[in-house]
Amino acid sequence: MLIDSHCHLDFSVFDGDRAQVLTRAITAGVAAYVVPATTAASFEKVLTLSRESIQVYAALGLHPYFMSEHDDEALTALRNALNNTPGVVAVGECGFDARLPDPQRQWQLFDAQLALAREFSLPVIVHCVRANDQVAKHLREACLPRGGIIHAFAGSEVQAERFLALGFVLGLGGSVTYSRAQKLRHVVSRLPDEGFILETDSPDMPLSGYQGQRNEPVRVKQVAEVVAELRATSVQHIGELTTANVRRVLQLNV
Ligand SMILES: [Zn+2]
Questions:
Q1: Fewer Cβ close by (within 10 Å): the C or N end of the chain?
Q2: Binding site annotation covers 201?
Q3: pLDDT tens figures, 211-223
Q4: Domains of the chain (ranges plus CATH)?
């Protein structure tokens, strides 16, 4: 069994065939999905998906990519949603992206969401691009009760170890399938068993060989195959390890 720990099934690109996308993945052994919201406007759709399907788990957060949509009320909306919705598994997707503008506002919004994770005793799903050291600093200062997930980890072994020491696991997705990602693949080969989980970030981050196509949760199986190869073990073992890791970090009952 596999879990896609990060996929944006709420995005409109899935509106036409969402049920088939899920059926394809379930048939391939992908038994659960974590869907992190990205804007306050998307909360209801993500929550509806999780209510309609027992395999879908909802996280709620404000993604730095959509900064222009996060007005002053967005944080209040997030707080209210966390307060009123049982079963939300994490705060996220939130974080920092050095490719995007307005770093000061990005950090403010991230810190505010870390405070909510602490208040509601939830893990966080962190988007972190070219900012591993600074993000680790913010996570450490937030003193989170439950750690979380560094989504689409890309960094050095030292940065990986630092996130693990803070109670986080690393999300591995399409990036590891590219043979040119040698540094990342080396880090993946050396991570401790309890330190990583699998994801697709669908519809984004296509795997090697699928560039330009919509990504889908079914492809988490190919991520598992590459990770198994890098770690010289079986896909089944990777499935067992990563399922246990997602269950532990998000307290899923799957
Ligand atoms: Zn994402």
A1: N
A2: yes
A3: 999 999 999 999 9
A4: 2-250 (3.20.20.140)
